[in-house]
């Protein structure tokens, strides 16, 4: 467990999330991708803190990332709900069309 | 972290599990006795209930449902017992504790949140309308009880100036926290009933849903769910004893025995409460939780914080 | 040594479940795969001695994913599991971009000459985090936070329109008669 | 061997019983419930929970089919019995107990379950002969079905119901259709008695047919879906979000539910949007043994017990049921009076109960007025103060077709409370033929 290995894992998580965020069509799935990217960021921030400078202030950065994630989630839910409300369930409509 | 507690090696985990199951069985036994009395039989005739039910469910076959999400269902059913055990990991038994995590209070909180996921998965797994509605009900209910629960357990942590359960217990040397933060204590007891899905918070497994999350499980699956609920209730009581009722503090008896006696007594009281109260519908619970209980707990927390600030400076 | 084994185990689970999020067909499974990924990262933070933050990550993310699952199922009305169909657009671009990013990041991680560790972790990290956030005014902040939160909640309650189940006893009858199905 | 026998002995000490009442056999049901209580057994909440299926009365063809479906859902070891008179309750339970304790018999039953076409269904009672075959062959399929509790007569519906919120599961149903990696864990494979595994998916269509004939109601979308489970349609929900509609029939095999009643609900989330009610009649040549006298103190207590059961207050419900049985014995409140007063006080004082029941419209009177809490208190009141001369205060029964209007727009829990409290009289409805749709 060195800084490099942890960062590699974090980069892997970040890139999987990036793939999801780019490729998914549905808002909530895009959100999942973003979450996964932030997950990687958290891991990286933790690793930087531990391996480079385990000073108290460093933890605050992590706290900020976690908060950002929560806010992103809340906003995401709100946006998804609004989209759903205003456009109706386009996905479901699509499904019916396909089946006929 | 704390000098008062001895951390025992992980080899003692099985003993903790046995103790937890014994407490769970105690809860079920009290419940059986109370039920027998309510039905007009001698209370003694209900004492064998947990054993008889265990035998019955061990003999029963498991049920399958069409298009069930088997792995998630299994996680949901089996997880409850595991989470209950993880909860008691940070609860000291007298002087001993399995792990005196410096953030034990937060750990307990995190484990209780895992129950959200597990109950919902148990409802989701069987692919049946009733159990699914039960799972959703639990989430609705969880939103109502979780924040009050969080603030309720924050109060003793603030008073003790530490998130370690050992420190919280040590801070109650003279005066139990339950005495001067009664609101937080009562809210926490309510939350224990809620995350173990007991009346008045039993709507997710309610009779009106034919058993809700329990509706489609039988045999060992059902046993795991039922035992998990009782174990959660026991773990919640044990934690309440540690953070509100002075843990092992008490005269005469050794500390570990005090912990057990208090836990058993609190558990019995909670079982009694559960039998006294009808279920509250979850949609009526949410406004109550947020509009009434949450401000009360916050007020309690405010009082505690002011006392600590004033007393500390 | 033990730390290494635990770390690698957690790392593998974390990345694997991260990949699973976009591979499985079931919304419930995808959501909970993401939850597993978060939980493992939270546990890795515990390895770094970040007890509080690690457990908070577990706590918040499990809670969030439990709620997320509802949204997933609600808004993914059309589910790939029901009718196998691709919900993905620009798959090739996405893979390329993600792969390139990973290559760049990995190169950077491996090539940069990381500085030596400076300083040592505080004895009580949770306390030091508190001090870092709130300075010496922590106790005051504890008091204020309760007040602030109470204000937020009351503001929300006042501002909230009627929801799906606004049942305040007497209203129910109105609703039942007023909203007969179309 | 000794261990096994001891396990069996312990296991049957507290059997759970799923009681099914056929309209017209109310007194028999009361006797059965009393016997269960006195033995320290437990009424089951759903077929999955039950060891014993006890039918009070002789069901008509459709009700019998529903009962048979429920029977298939009992996980086993299982036993089944029929009671026709109150005095037969004890003997029937003894019979069921013998069946339960018979290890060899149970093993044979388990082994015979998948293929045996005659399993649990008397051919003469089957609703329509043509479908009987398919219905039987898929019987184990049905037993696996998602909806243990509701209706049981209508698995097909509940399946499609689940399909929209449970959609993600469908890939696993074992058909291997979607080719996703999950189909391996289709649940069937991992179970203990492998004998039932074989036909997990292929009979779906047959099953649906059988069920549709059962309840010929659905405006079902019958487009073929991978797992044989049709996709749900959408519809506007009351908070402005569009949500899937599913069809969930409630009843007739449901505890604390009016006998024989089936409520075909269209549910959105947990809100019932539309419903259709009907009552499944008893067998044509059956001689009903008798109901509780409508409006008598015992009948009032029975209704109160039903409401309290659904409200999730087992102890108060048990108290009400005990009072009912005492009143049935004594014919007049006399000695039960103190206990009645106690129960009344307890119910009146309960703040949580009021919170749950207030505002759920009552299906009582004409036009319906008040809420379920009023209704519960009224029942207890009337039980305490029966009219002079022993003539019971009549219950103003609500016509069956009022029920759907009342139920529409209510949440599932409210619907259960509403129906449990509804002043219906299925037996009368059946006699007059009004219950048949």
Description:
The complex is a heterotetramer of chains A (100), B (313), C (182) and D (437). Chain A is built from 4 helices and no strands. Chain A has 100 residues and is an all-alpha fold. In chain A, helix 1 (3-23) runs antiparallel to helix 2 (27-51). With 313 residues, chain B is mainly α. Chain B is 67% helix and 1% strand. Chain B has helices spanning 13-38, 49-59, 70-88, 104-124, 129-160, 165-170, 177-180, 182-195, 219-243, 255-276, 282-312; strands at residues 6-7, 96-97. In chain B, strands 1-2 form a two-stranded parallel ribbon. The mean pLDDT of chain B is 86. With 182 residues, chain C is mainly α. Chain C has helices spanning 2-21, 27-47, 51-75, 91-111, 125-134, 138-159, 171-178. Chain C is extended. Chain C starts with a helix and ends with a helix. The chains are: A mainly alpha (100), B mainly alpha (313), C mainly alpha (182), D alpha/beta (437). Chains in contact: A-C, A-D, B-C, B-D, C-D. Chain A binds chain D through residues 81, 84-85, 88-89, 92-93, 95-96, 99-100, and chain D through 223, 231, 233-234, 240-242, 244. Chain B: It is a multi-pass membrane protein. Chain B: Its main location: membrane.
Brief write-up:
Chain C: One of its GO terms (molecular function) is NADH dehydrogenase (ubiquinone) activity. Chain C: Belongs to the complex I subunit 6 family. The complex is a heterotetramer of chains A (100), B (313), C (182) and D (437). By secondary structure, chain A is an all-alpha fold.
Keywords:
heterotetramer; B: about 325 residues; mainly alpha; two-stranded parallel ribbon; about 65% helix; globular; C: about 180 residues; 7 helices; about 70% helix; extended; disordered C terminus; NUOK/Mnh_C1-like (chain A); transport (chain A); NAD (chain A)
Give me the Rg of chain B, rounded: 19 Å
Percent in strands of chain B:
under 5%
Let me know the largest β-sheet of chain B. Answer: 2 strands, parallel
Structural class of chain B: mainly alpha
Q: What low-confidence regions of chain B span 5 or more consecutive residues with pLDDT below 50?
A: none
Report the oligomer.
Answer: heterotetramer
Measured between the Cα atoms of the first and last residue of chain D, the distance is 54 Å
Largest interface: B-D, 69 and 88 residues
Biggest beta sheet summary of chain D: 5 strands, antiparallel
Look at the structure and give the mean pLDDT of chain D.
68
Query: What helical percentage do the residues of chain D reach?
Result: 40-55%
Assign the structural class of chain D, choosing from mainly alpha, mainly beta, alpha/beta, alpha+beta, or little secondary structure. Answer: alpha/beta
Spatial strand sequence of the major β-sheet of chain B? 1-2
Average residue pLDDT of chain B? 86
- What strand line-up does the widest sheet of chain D have? 5-6-7-8-9
Q: What is the approximate shape of chain D?
A: globular
The percent range for strand residues of chain D is: 5-15%
The number of E-state strands of chain D comes to 9
End-to-end gap of chain B: 24 Å
């Amino acid at each position: 467990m060195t800084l490099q290995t942890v960062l590699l894992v974090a980069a892997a998580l970040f890139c999987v999330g990036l793939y999801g965020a780019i490729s998914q069509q549905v808002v909530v799935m895009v959100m999942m991708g973003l979450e996964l990217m932030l997950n990687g960021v958290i891991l990286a921030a933790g690793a930087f803190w531990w391996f480079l400078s385990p000073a108290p202030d460093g933890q605050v950065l992590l706290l900020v990332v976690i908060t950002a994630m929560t806010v992103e989630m809340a906003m995401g839910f709100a946006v998804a709900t609004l989209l759903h409300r205003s456009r109706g369930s386009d996905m479901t409509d699509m499904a019916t069309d396909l089946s006929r | 972290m704390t000098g008062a507690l001895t951390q025992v090696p992980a080899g003692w985990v099985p003993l903790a599990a046995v103790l937890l199951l014994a407490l769970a069985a105690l809860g079920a036994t009290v419940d059986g006795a109370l039920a027998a009395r309510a039905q007009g039989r001698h209370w003694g005739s209900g004492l064998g209930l947990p054993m008889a039910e265990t035998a019955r469910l061990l003999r029963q076959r498991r049920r399958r449902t069409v298009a069930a999400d088997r792995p998630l269902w299994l996680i949901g059913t089996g997880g409850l017992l595991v989470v209950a055990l993880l909860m008691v990991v940070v609860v000291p038994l007298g002087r001993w504790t399995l792990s005196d995590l410096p953030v034990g209070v937060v750990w307990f909180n995190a484990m209780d949140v895992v129950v959200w996921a597990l109950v919902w998965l148990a409802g989701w797994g069987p692919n049946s309308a009733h159990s699914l509605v039960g799972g959703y009900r639990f989430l609705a209910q969880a939103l109502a009880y979780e924040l009050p629960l969080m603030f309720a357990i924050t109060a003793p942590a603030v008073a003790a100036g530490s998130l370690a359960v050992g420190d919280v217990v040590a801070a109650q040397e003279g005066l139990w926290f339950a005495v001067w933060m009664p609101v937080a204590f009562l809210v926490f007891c309510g939350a224990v009933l809620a995350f173990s899905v007991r009346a008045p918070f039993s709507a997710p497994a309610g009779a009106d849903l034919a058993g809700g999350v329990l509706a489609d499980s039988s045999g060992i699956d059902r046993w795991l769910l039922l035992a998990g609920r009782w174990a959660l209730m026991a773990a919640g009581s044990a934690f309440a004893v540690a953070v509100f009722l002075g843990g092992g503090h008490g005269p005469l008896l050794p500390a570990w025995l005090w912990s057990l006696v208090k836990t058993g007594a609190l558990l019995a009281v909670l079982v009694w409460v559960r039998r006294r109260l009808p279920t509250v519908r979850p949609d009526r619970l949410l406004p109550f939780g947020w509009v009434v209980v949450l401000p009360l707990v916050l007020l309690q927390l405010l009082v505690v914080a002011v006392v600590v600030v004033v007393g500390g400076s | 040594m033990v730390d290494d084994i635990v770390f690698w185990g957690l790392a593998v689970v974390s990345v694997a479940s991260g990949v699973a999020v976009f591979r499985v067909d079931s919304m419930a499974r995808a959501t909970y795969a993401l939850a597993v990924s978060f939980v493992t990262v939270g546990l890795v933070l515990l390895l770094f001695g970040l007890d509080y933050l690690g457990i908070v990550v577990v706590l918040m993310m499990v809670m969030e994913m439990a709620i997320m699952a509802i949204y997933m199922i609600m808004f993914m009305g059309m589910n790939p599991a029901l009718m196998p169909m691709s919900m993905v657009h620009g798959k090739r671009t996405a893979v390329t971009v993600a792969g390139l990013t990973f290559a760049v990041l990995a190169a950077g991680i491996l090539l940069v000459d990381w500085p030596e560790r400076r300083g040592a972790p505080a004895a009580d990290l949770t306390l030091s985090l508190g001090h870092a956030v709130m300075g010496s005014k922590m106790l005051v902040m504890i008091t204020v936070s309760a007040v602030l939160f109470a204000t937020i909640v009351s503001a929300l309650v006042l501002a909230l329109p009627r929801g799906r189940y606004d049942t305040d006893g007497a209203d129910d009858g109105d609703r039942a008669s007023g909203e007969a199905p179309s | 061997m000794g261990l096994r026998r001891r396990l069996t002995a312990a296991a049957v000490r507290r059997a759970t019983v799923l009681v099914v009442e056929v309209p017209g056999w109310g007194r028999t049901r009361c006797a059965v419930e009393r016997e269960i209580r006195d033995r320290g057994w437990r009424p089951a909440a759903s077929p999955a929970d039950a060891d014993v299926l006890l039918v009070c009365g002789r069901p008509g063809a459709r009700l019998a089919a529903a009962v048979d479906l429920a029977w298939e859902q009992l996980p086993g070891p299982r036993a089944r019995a029929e009671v026709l008179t109150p005095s037969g309750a004890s003997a029937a339970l003894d019979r069921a107990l013998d069946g339960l304790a018979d290890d060899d018999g149970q093993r044979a039953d388990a082994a015979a379950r998948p293929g045996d076409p005659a399993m649990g269904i008397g051919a003469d009672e089957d609703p329509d002969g043509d479908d009987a075959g398919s219905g039987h062959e898929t019987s184990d399929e049905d037993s696996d079905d998602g909806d243990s509790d509701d209706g049981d007569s209508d698995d097909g519906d509940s399946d499609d119901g689940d399909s929209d919120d449970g959609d993600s599961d469908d890939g696993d149903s074992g058909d291997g259709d979607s080719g996703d990696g999950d189909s391996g864990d289709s649940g069937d494979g991992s179970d203990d008695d492998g004998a039932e595994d074989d036909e997990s998916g292929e009979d779906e269509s047959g099953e649906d047919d059988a069920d549709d004939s059962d309840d010929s109601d659905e405006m079902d979308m019958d487009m073929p879906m991978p797992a044989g489970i049709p996709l749900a349609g959408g519809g506007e929900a009351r908070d402005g979000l569009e949500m899937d509609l599913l069809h969930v029939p409630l009843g007739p095999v449901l505890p604390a539910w009016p006998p024989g009643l089936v409520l075909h609900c269209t549910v959105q989330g947990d809100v019932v949007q539309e419903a259709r009610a009907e009552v499944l009649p008893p067998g044509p040549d059956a001689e009903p043994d008798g109901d509780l006298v409508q409006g008598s103190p015992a009948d009032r207590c029975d209704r109160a017990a039903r409401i309290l059961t659904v409200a999730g207050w087992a102890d108060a419900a048990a108290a009400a049921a005990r009072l009912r049985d005492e009143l049935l014995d004594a014919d007049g409140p006399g000695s039960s009076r103190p206990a009645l007063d106690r129960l009344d006080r307890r119910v009146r004082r309960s703040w949580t109960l009021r919170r749950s029941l207030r505002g759920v419209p009552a299906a009582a009177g004409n036009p319906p007025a008040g809420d379920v809490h009023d209704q519960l208190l009224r029942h207890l009141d009337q039980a305490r103060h029966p009219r002079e001369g022993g003539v019971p205060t009549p219950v103003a029964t609500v016509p069956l077709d009022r029920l759907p209007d009342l139920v529409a727009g209510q949440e599932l829990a409210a619907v259960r409370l509403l129906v449990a409290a509804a002043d219906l009289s299925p037996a009368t409805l059946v006699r007059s033929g009004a219950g048949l749709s």
